[in-house]
Q: What sequence folds into this?
């Protein structure tokens, strides 16, 4: 909430992170193996399960930005833009 999130938005994000944590445990994935391809696999499974929110790498940015300075991730907080981000960038330009 100190970062400007409303209480409800912060609660939703915490639930999203808890879902990711449960998925990681079920898949046997530790933080040291949390690569871009693993995150994309998680998001693909989330989309396939019918989730309407928190379905893209953008949804993971706050978590990755928090974990990156701790040095626990094998990936940088922002990877190369995907096709949606590329399209949005071109639209904005």
A:
């Amino acid at each position: 909430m100190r970062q400007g999130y409303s209480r409800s938005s912060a609660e939703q994000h915490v639930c999203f992170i808890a879902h990711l944590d449960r998925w990681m445990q079920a898949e046997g994935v530790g933080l040291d193996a949390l690569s871009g391809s693993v995150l994309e696999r998680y998001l693909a499974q989330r989309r396939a399960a019918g989730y309407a929110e928190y379905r893209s790498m953008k949804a993971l940015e706050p978590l990755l930005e928090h974990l990156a300075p701790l040095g626990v991730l094998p990936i940088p907080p922002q990877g190369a833009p995907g096709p949606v981000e590329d399209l949005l960038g071109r639209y904005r330009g």
In short: The chain has a mean pLDDT of 86.
